[in-house]
Design goal:
Number of helices: 22
Bound molecules: flavin-adenine dinucleotide, ligand DLZ, iron/sulfur cluster
Largest sheet: 5 strands, parallel
Number of strands: 7
Strand order of the largest sheet: 3-2-1-4-5
Helix content: 40-55%
Strand content: under 5%
Radius of gyration: 23 Å
Shape: globular
């Protein structure tokens, strides 16, 4: 009997388990653009365009490869509106009684598939380096699930950057050489550009017509929509930006929105590139003497370490992970996260480029928009909703542990051993934002003081019971206690005034 092989919008890999178990001469591939997926969050317009364009391109490639593909476009009249609805419709048309797919990257869809009226077989998604089972085995019996230990096991298991039993370069971590501030450099190689052909153009027009009010602009759409384009992006990164990736990993510059970042997350998350091939390409550059160990290790750690770890945590912790709120933060997300209308130059820059590119790099996400939300006590569910909506690479399996876990400490410390927060001094050191800001990064209290400064101490003060005993935070509390009572009171008063402004719906 004919089987239906369903390929979801972020499963665009020719060698995934579902396609591998199909028979081109007998089975039918189903792909569907549906409203339910397009609206479960208010996706950035570029994310919608990228998804649909990449799906259409992938369907063409499958057909060229000899598969029979039943493809539903978003605006087709008979579109059932949901993935389950489309599978059921196509199964009836084809006389199939089973749908095979890779398990989706979201509890929401896994549960919908389990309770569907048609039988949907969800195969383990083997496009990750570490399977869910392997991660659960690693986690079993451990008191703390620290990324570093997981990462070292992955290094040993894959042999990436290993010299026998030892890490290449003699260290597991080269952070002390990394994380330097960057200077503007007009000669930094720009990102590759991709021509919007007729297929992409049609999708861009459809997205603008169907989702006119969604966040973001399509003007600068420049994402790889096919494996060939993603390969070009990878080659470009290895040739031009890997060399200094580590050194400037945490730097931020107002006029350089990408710096040395790879901008490969959307391609990897869609399945256009495999995480292992990306790591191997970086390792090759190291072996060839084209890139130094601090950058190559730093880059591989992000993918082999953080990316695999985040997925492991999401599926290990279960569907309730996204509703945790360990710090009991309840404030609404300020409106300026959507409008970008704030006097804080760092926030304006991070939000502005998010609107224009659907992209901000890790430190902007963690230490600017993320840290501000944490310091200001924003409801972590609302923070997650924002991150899930606005980024080109956002899927719940990776967005939620990064946001709820790493950035908002909402999971109570499963991912992060201490909250990622800083005063304005860190942003000033790592960026050139503060010079052009309406606030004074050196001022600690009063109307003109950088909001990060007073909110930082307000956070520490209000969560003292939880964090005082944390060995990594003892020094900060000692510093706070050493300050004069009037100084502490002035900072807390300044922070209170800022929080009251937020509560009145005013921008900072
Ligand atoms: P680079 O800096 O070039 O890094 C190389 C690759 O490493 C990335 O392409 C990505 O595949 C991987 N990577 C790096 N850091 C992480 C990480 N912390 N977790 C998982 N993979 C990582 N990443 C997503 O892919 N989707 C998300 O929805 C997402 N949400 C985030 C939310 C918050 C609050 C934070 C702090 C981080 C989030 N990240 C997310 C992680 C990271 O910011 C992005 O992967 C990265 O900025 C993508 O840009 P890049 O491809 O230029 O990455
Ligand atoms: C993100 C997305 C969007 C916007 N649209 C579709 C779609 O129309 N059809 C589809 O198969 N997949 C889409 N996706 C990707 C899914 O939402 C994704 O598979 C889940 O979020 C699980 O990671
Ligand atoms: Fe951001 Fe504060 Fe610097 Fe302004 S002064 S850019 S708010 S860190």
């Amino acid at each position: 009997m004919t089987k239906l092989i369903a390929v979801l919008g972020d499963q665009l890999s020719h060698d995934g388990a579902a396609l591998r178990c199909g028979d081109k001469s007998a089975d039918v591939v189903v792909m569907a653009e549906v409203r339910e997926e397009a609206t479960y969050t208010g996706h950035h317009k570029q994310k919608l365009a990228l998804t649909f364009a990449a799906m259409r391109r992938f369907a063409d490639e499958l057909e060229r490869d000899g598969w029979q593909v039943r493809y539903t476009k978003l605006t087709d009249d008979d579109n059932a509106g949901s993935l389950v609805g489309e599978f059921a419709r196509r199964a009836e048309e084809e006389g199939a009684d089973e749908v095979i797919t890779l398990a989706p990257g979201e509890w929401r869809l896994r549960q919908a598939f389990e309770s569907a009226p048609i039988k949907i077989r969800q195969l383990p998604d083997d496009r990750f380096i570490c399977s869910e089972k392997r991660f659960a085995d690693w986690a079993e019996g451990r008191k703390e699930l620290r990324m570093e230990w997981f990462y070292r096991e992955m290094r040993r298991e894959t042999g990436l950057l290993m010299e026998g039993d030892d890490p290449a370069g003699g260290e597991w971590n080269f952070d002390k050489e990394n994380r330097k501030p960057a200077q503007p450099d007009l000669f930094r190689e720009p990102a590759p550009t991709f021509r919007n052909d007729a297929l992409v153009q049609e999708v861009l027009e459809m997205v603008e017509a169907e989702f006119p009010d969604n966040f973001g602009s399509l003007d600068e759409f420049n994402w790889p929509v096919s494996r060939a384009q993603a390969e070009r992006s990878l080659e470009h990164f290895i040739a031009h930006n890997l060399h200094d990736f580590g050194t400037y990993q945490d730097a931020m510059l107002a006029e350089d929105r990408l710096l040395h970042h790879s901008i490969l997350s959307s391609s990897i998350n869609l399945g256009l590139l495999s995480p292992l091939e990306v790591c191997k390409a970086a390792e090759e550059a190291y072996k060839a003497g084209d890139a130094p160990i601090n950058s190559v290790e730093g880059f591989i750690r992000q993918i082999l370490g953080w990316r695999e770890y985040m997925r492991g945590i999401y599926f290990l912790e279960g569907p309730d992970y996204t509703s945790r709120n360990a710090l009991n933060h309840k404030r609404d997300l300020p409106w300026f996260y959507w409008s970008g209308e704030t006097e804080m130059a760092c926030m304006k820059a991070a939000i502005g480029q998010t609107r224009d590119l659907a992209y901000a790099h890790h430190i902007q996400r963690l230490m600017v928009t993320g840290s501000f939300a944490l310091l200001a006590g924003i409801d972590p569910r609302q923070v997650q909703d924002w991150y899930l909506a606005v980024y080109i690479d956002a899927y719940e399996w990776v967005e939620a542990p990064n946001t709820a876990g790493m950035s908002q400490f909402a999971d109570g410390g499963v991912v992060a051993s201490k909250p990622y927060i800083s005063s304005g001094a860190y942003i000033d050191k790592m960026s050139d934002y503060c010079g052009g800001c309406a606030y004074d990064v050196k001022a600690k209290d009063g109307e003109k003081a950088c909001p990060f400064n007073s909110l930082y101490w307000h956070f520490l003060d209000r969560h003292r019971d939880r964090f005082e005993g944390n060995p990594r935070m003892g020094l900060v509390y000692r510093n706070w206690d050493k300050q004069k009572t009037e100084t502490r009171e002035a900072k807390l008063k300044t922070a209170e005034a800022l929080l009251e402004k937020l509560d009145r719906g005013e921008a900072l």
